[in-house]
Each structure stands twice: as structure tokens, then as C-alpha cells.
Amino acid sequence: MSTTTACGPAQDSGYRAVLGAPYVARLLGGTLMGRLPTGMAPIAILLLVRAEHGPLALAGALGALFGLACALGQPLLGRLVDRHGQIRVLVAATATASTAFLLLPCTGPARHPVLAALTVLVAGLATPPLEAGLRALWPVLLPEAGRQRTALSLDSSTQGLVFVAGPLLATGFAAGAGVTTALVATAALGLLGTGLVVTAQPSRAWTPAEFTERVHWTGPLRVPGLRVLFAALIGTGVALGAVNVLALSAAERHHAGWLAGVMPAALSIGSMLGGLAYGRHAWPGTPARHLVAASIGFAAGWLPLLPDPAPAVAVLGAVLPGTFLAPLLTAAFLTVDRLAPYGESTEAFAWLIACIGIGQATGTALTSLDPAPLLVAAVPLAGAAFALWLLHRFNDRLSA
Q1: Contacts for 168 with CB less than 8 Å, ≥ 6 apart
Q2: φ and ψ of 31, to 5 deg
Q3: How confident is the model at residue 168 (pLDDT cuts 50, 70, 90)?
Q4: Within a 13 Å sphere around the CA of 136, how many CA atoms are in the beta-carbon half?
Q5: Which end of the chain offers a freer environment for a tag, N or C, measured as fewer CB atoms within 10 Å?
Q6: Helix axes 113-125, 24-51, angle to 10 degrees
């Protein structure tokens, strides 16, 4: 499916060795930069609507529309990458999304909400599948299995930076130079990050598989194990989508405004630490077993937040499920890599990302229905428990 990029046969699978392999740091950094718009855009959209004195409900609806469109567009774009290669798809998608970000202030969202919604929809659907594309490149960049696992752990651990740095960048640009500048910066960072990826030799050399027969229209979804995994990750996404509302609700109850930002950041920090620890060692057992083990920790980690603890305890409590998140995702990526049909790895990874995104939107919506502390805290626990049940109940399909 792909042309080979040499990284040598060395067996050292530590982080330094992985980052020192040709193109790894560039592609990882470019992917993170290119994905910053997914963390910046929802905040920039909210600030744009409020700057025009538009209602908060409209701002929230446009932000949610962007997130949902991002999730739905990934599998389609992933399929196009598997058929036509990375360069054409990534360049066209990034150019379209960036143009939409630049045009959004011109639509006047408060006065023309339908036009703004269509622009936001285009920006979301055209979000380039950089994350899925990078995961399809790891076997090319790092043929040795131990290095691939380390790279996936590093990849999973650093993805949270997008949703920590993205909102900070958007609010910083908006405060310093206006919300239009924040959207220009969103477009520029997307173009720059994608440029770093598509001009790298492995991305340019990556070629789609040659199919000898027509591929089924359902793509990777025809594989039973992948259907189980993707459904379970919707539950994981529900837990993640509930965090922002849970943090905001706790911040208002305890009169601690800082908690709304620190609590989600604590989850991301926990994920980074857990992922780095997971990637440092070769753990016994199959990725399917690792999925169940990490899901147990992820689900149990939400229990301390049920009794509505004090702010400092809530921050520490958010770190706990986070420590199991990156190992869970790394095991999920390894499982996708094993189960994805020949020539359909990018679409399979894109489905994984999409299902998490759909779960996030669902989790945000569910936690917004009832402000009761126990019910809000129960949503992430319920989502994580659902994921655990599916992964445990159908673990044999994941191991097939």
C-alpha cells in the first residue's frame, strides 16, 4: 500500500530513538499544528458570534455543528486518501477549510445565521484527515513493531495538546488583535501544519493500494471487530464530551471560575503522562486485552467525581481517568491496524476518530440536559462503562 521510507533496523524503541528516526518529528509536529484549527475553531466561532452581540444559543449551535461536521467528514476523506493518496486530498481539504474560516467573519453570523452555518459546515466537513493519515504512515516510518507501539503512544499522548493549546491560542489572538485575526490564525496554522506534512517525502511517496476487486461500500465497517471497537469508542467519546460541561457546572457551584479550564486540562495532562508511561514498556498480552484493562481504569477513574468534590480534589480526580485514556487509544489504534482490510487503513483510523467525535457531541448534549451534579457526573461514567462492557463482551472479535 505504501512505499518504504527507511528508518533502519535498530531495535531501540525508546522515545528518543523514535523521534530521531527520519521525518518522525516533522510529521508529528506538522500533524499537531495542522490539527490546531479543531481546537481553535469552536472558541473562535463562539467569540465571533458574541462580538456581534449574537445569542449564546447560536454560538453554541454553530460550535456544535463544526464539531459534528468534523467527525462526519473524516471517514469520507479517509476513503479518498486510501483511493487517491495523501497529497491531493490533504491539500484540497485544507484549502477548502481555511477558505471557509477566512470567509466566516464576512457572513455576519448574528445577522445571517444560515449562511454562517453553511460556512461552518464546509469548514468542518473539509477538516483534513491528518490524524488518520499519520497513523497510516507509522508502519512506513517505523517498520519495527516495538517502535510503532512507542510512536502510537507518543501520538496519542500529544493529541490532547490540540485541545489545550487551541483554545488558548484562539482567545489570545482574539484578545490581542480581534476575533477576525483569530480566525485568520486558525486558517494559517492549518495551512502551515498541512504544508509540513504534504511536503515531507513519506507523505508524497505514500501510494494507495491497488485493488483487484470492487471494495464493499461499507468499507472497514464490514469487519465485525472494528464495528465493536468503533461503537465502544462512542462511549469513550461521551465521557470526553461531558468533561467541559462537568467542569463548567462544578466551577459555577463552587464559585471557582478557573476550574472550567483547569479540569479539562488536567484530563489532558493525565492522558499525556499515562500514554508516555504506557509507551516506555512492552506490556504482556494482546492489544485487545490492553483495551479492556485500560477501559477498566478509565471507567473507575470517574467514580471520585460522583460526590461533587472540592475544586482541588476535582482537578486531581480528572487526572485519574486521563491516565488511562492514551493507553486505551493506543491499544485501539493497534487493534485498528491489525483488523483494517488491505488498503483501507486511513478510512479505518478516520472512523475511529469520527466515532469518538460523535460520542463527544453526544456527551456534551446529555450533560446539558439536567444541571443536577450527580447526573452530570454520571454521564462520563456511563459512557466509559458502556465502552468497557462492549470491549469485554466482544473481546474475541477484537482478537480475531
Answers
A1: none
A2: -65, -45
A3: confident
A4: 35
A5: C
A6: 170
Q: Which three cell numbers stand for residue 250?
A: 462544578
Q: Grid coordinates in use for 149?
A: 507501539
Nearest to 336 by CA among 225, 222, 234, 211: 225
Neighbours of 57 (CB within 10 A): 9
Tell the residue number behind the cell numbers 467542569, with chain if given. Answer: 247
Structure confidence by residue, pLDDT tens digits, 15-66: 888 999 999 999 999 999 999 999 899 889 988 988 898 887 888 788 889 9
Query: Cell numbers at residue 153, please?
Result: 503512544
For residues 340 and 230, give the distance between their C-alpha atoms in angstroms, rounded to a whole number: 12
Q: 170 is written with which cell numbers?
A: 484562539
d(CA 184, CA 190): 10
> Exposed, middle or buried: residue 340 (CB in 10 Å: 0-12, 13-18, 19+)?
buried
What's the whole-model pTM score?
Answer: 0.82
What cell numbers appear for 94 in the block?
485544507
If you average pLDDT over residues 78-105, what whole number do you get?
95
Cβ atoms of 2 and 141 closer than 8 Å:
no
Would you tell me the crossing angle of helices 179-198 and 130-141 to the nearest 10 degrees? Answer: 30
